[in-house]
Amino acid sequence: MATQTTKRGGFGGKIAAILAAAGSAIGLGNIWRFPYITSENGGGAFIIIYLGCILLLGLPLLIAEFAVGHNAKSNPIDAFSKIRKGWGWLGAAGLISVTLIMGYYFVISGWTLNYALSSATDSIGGDYGAFFTEFTTATWKPLIYTYIFILANHFIIVGGVQGGIEKASKIMMPLLFVILIVLAVYSLWLPEGREALGSVFTPDFSKVTGKTFLDAMGQAFFTLSIGMGAMLIYGSYFKKGTKLAGTAISVVSLDTLVALTAAIIIFSAGVENESGMQLAFVAMPKVFSAMPAGNIWAMLFFLLLALAALSSTISMHEAVTSYFVEKRGMSRNKSALIVTFIAIALSTVASLSLGDWSEYKVAGMNFFSLLDNFTAIVMLPLLGILTSVFVGWIWRREDMRAELTAEGGIDKSSYPIISFLLRWVCPVLVSIVFAFGIYDFINTL
Prior knowledge:
By secondary structure, this protein is mostly helical. It has 18 helices and no strands. The relative contact order is 0.20.
């Protein structure tokens, strides 16, 4: 095994750790997925169920990933191996998963840059659906924006943990919150905005079904970047003495705040019944066009999306880069370059699969959709189950207790609760999400 050639980096303090980890958690799903499923599942009723799932599922799994990384102070593969020999494959699976996610996530991230620029110059036009289709199916234009976004990640990663990731997080996250607050204040200033508060927070239990609970569990799991090694590697950069539970609570709180605020903004625009890409890239520009200075508000919205995407993708890039630095003994520059080229190759194929290469399909899906569905439905839930099993059952009980109590800031009275959740509740809940996801996926083939 190659040895590490440079001194291992780390975050400079608690605030830096929270901002970086929150940036990894806060992504595109907070802004376009959460509002849609909240509307579909009874507004405040869904939020109540979602918060319960965050406490029972998201928070303990986030603490678990932080604990593994903080204990081992290594890349994902070595982290699992150090704690229990022979389990490095779990870290490797996480790195494969996050690499595949980068393949399509960078493409969408590039779209946000194009839309921010097009909004600022008021050049989207009046047919928003046609603009979206024409742009995403083009050959070179979406690739250029995708490459710009990947290179932005590359230069941040090359700067190192403190000089790159931490510095970028200290700029991006406050800017993200400022834009979010500006959009929220403007939305609440509108008559529709004040009505949106009622729509977001008033429970409508008549819309609650079994699917509501599945959606809540799925959102709680996916929103926190669990199962891809990103939170594990960030946990490994925490300083000794960092309170893992307190940091996890801060990350979960910020992530939930962004999702709720985004829901208010979307509900105010009156397009909450749209979903996914149609919501972000077709419905929202149409709404902004009818507002005074609509191109400015649209630019801010897409800049918000771009910042959310960038804060997430740098954690993905870093998780894989750390493998080449620590496992292969390469310099950070060379390691980052390898990951950047992998991202460029995958995202190129993913982007072209929407246009020029759309006729090439696997299981009825183009390459873009295949990456999305395979990672979201199969890889991430499966890795979440295995991570909770590893921490709850495979990790030596005494060592895990020491990490979570002596090092992690969890008092001894709360430890049995966290242990019970990781050993029993998390594997069961994520298995349910996994089983129903596979069932739905098979039915769509």
